[in-house]
Amino acid sequence: MTLQEQFIAFKTIVIKEVYRFSRIWVQTIIPPVITISLYFIIFGKLIGSQIGDMNGFRYMDYIVPGLIMMAVITNSYANVVSSFYGCKFHHHIEEMMVSPIPNHLIVLGFISGGIARGMAVGIAVTAVSLLFTSLSFHNLAVIISTVIMTSALFALAGLINAVFAKSFDDISIIPTFVLTPLTYLGGVFYSISMLPEFWQRVSHINPILYMVNAFRYGFLGVSDINIGLSYIIIIGFIVALYSYAIYLLRVGHGIRR
Amino acid sequence: MANALSIKNLKKTYANGFQALKGISLEVGDGDFYALLGPNGAGKSTTIGIICSLVTKTSGKVHIFGEDIDQDFSGAKRMLGLVPQEFNFNVFEPVEEILVNQAGYFGIERKTAFERAEQYLKQLGLWEKRRAQARDLSGGMKRRLMIARALVHRPRLLILDEPTAGVDIEIRRSMWRFLQELNQTGTTIILTTHYLEEAESLCRHIGIIDEGELIESTSMKQLLSQLQMETFVLDLKSPLREAPRLARDGCLRLLDEHTLEADITRDCSINFLFDELSRHGIEVLSMRNKTNRLEQLFVHMVESNDASGAEK
Q1: B55, B89, B108 ranked by CB distance to A95: nearest
Q2: Which residue in B has a C-alpha nearest to residue A11's C-alpha?
Q3: How many CA atoms lie within 13 A of B263 on its CB side?
Q4: Whose CA is closest to B106, among A151, A10, A253, A47?
Q5: Which of B56, B77, B91 sits opposite A98 (nearest CB)?
Q6: How far is the alpha carbon of A242 from chain B, nearest alpha carbon, in Å?
Q7: Within its chain, how far is the Cα of B192 from the centroid?
Q8: Domains in chain B, start-ordered, CATH in brackets?
Q9: pLDDT digits (tens, 9 = 90+) for A23-79
Q10: What is the pLDDT of residues B149-171, one digit of tens each?
Q11: Chain B contact for A8, CB < 8 A?
């Protein structure tokens, strides 16, 4: 395929993916906004007012970046895992397999769809957070780059999950038993400096800690983790998961008999 | 000029150890209308799956218009259109969008894609349904949608895996006409079907697969010439109680009191048959060839292959 043809093919997947989640926005955009709004009300307003400051910030201000990131992570993952598994389940992944689209464009197309939904939900949640607090932006470039890279990373993870999934149950196991606990333990609601030293070290194994802290740094200018290290970890995971996703498509795991 | 399809020693063993293809070699010429027949589980869909990269081959070579699918993956796929056996489109998508997206996957501009979608949807009688979700189409419409989708990038080789399964006779015949016209414009067509009448009336060459092996690949004419007997169905003017015996070269069977079936050897003239009927005072209103000639051969070949397999 020429570069122009490749661009058209890539654009086709992206438009299709964005159209898919926009068409059912009541199921894809509204629920996370409602869930995160409840977090704002319960943890930020009601309980947060009793907690006091954290790292020199009001508790509500401290948790807002983490909650936005939580919504971005779960939605970029959910978008790709459900879309790609749906394609597999209904066999219309074959429409792409019989076409000359290279595997890297299929992966990039689905990731872009995941990023788009992550960003759409992230923007909606950010807008709602303005009802509860006033946001400050310490470093906009860090905010934007972190949110794009993180949603790309979890979109990739969602795609890999979908490749291995054999039933609809398999696409909910990872979000329930891995993603949610890691997000809750990734410093969304607290600073890891509050933990005993042993648990601080354990927390460093959790990749979501690096994303939440880099994102929080973009808003508040404070982080439990070195920002450079956060970028290295995120980029490292993206490269590893992307390479693995390409490998899986090349060998046709789960999609080719 | 390169053949439309060239398969050399193609083998496929599935993970559970089942050997679906045992070394198939096959050539389909440019512009041909080729029937790939075989009983259920013979290996037809596996062969098609490998050609279209839906199934990973164990070994062997596949060339599409001279392009090796292992070397020039993109170039080979560009020339290939597939109408699979099972519906494999997004049932929630509108009909027109399914075609436009498929064209997009082949790098075709959206404007051109819409023009081609209109052309094929009109040709296949689906234009009125272009805004409908695919799940709302009837079975016959869904089959035609898959044909339109397979054509939207204008492939030189179209593979149809049982395209008329479950389709009523009227739509089936309109699909035959469409495929014949398509073939006349130069598109090579490979067809698998369980309707042997369909293969006999459409295809010029035929390949028969059984138990993962190609047991026959020849021209339809040559294959049908292997028939030793020709069967005719005769509609009688007056009722008949018992079928008379022919003096030689064949036999007569009474299907009902107004229908007689005549088997005569191929070197025997039809005049002889009519002389015999006249001798018995039988008047014939009309006569037609029995259309299951290919079926007789097919059943005979598959049974012979099974018997030789059992001996081994």
Answers
A1: B89
A2: B104
A3: 11
A4: A10
A5: B77
A6: 21
A7: 4
A8: 5-224 (3.40.50.300), 228-293 (3.30.70.1560)
A9: 889 998 999 899 988 888 887 778 877 777 777 888 888 888 889 999 999 999 999
A10: 999 999 999 999 988 877 787 88
A11: yes
Contact at CB, A100 and B102, closer than 8 angstroms: no
Q: How far apart are alpha carbons B276 and B250 in whole angstroms? A: 11
Ordered DSSP codes for B101-168? HHHHHTT--HHHHHHHHHHHHHHTT-GGGTTSBGGGS-HHHHHHHHHHHHHTT--SEEEEESTTTT--
DSSP A167-218: STTHHHHHIIIIIHHHHHTTTSSS-GGGS-HHHHHHHTT-HHHHHHHHHHHH
| Side chain identity, residue A64 | V
Search chain A and give the residue with CA nearest B101: A12
The percent of residues above 70 in pLDDT, for chain B, comes to 93
What pTM was computed for the model? 0.82
Interface of A with B in 197-236 (CB under 8 A): none
* Cα–Cα distance, B132 to B137 (Å, whole number): 8
CB < 8 Å to B145, chain A = none
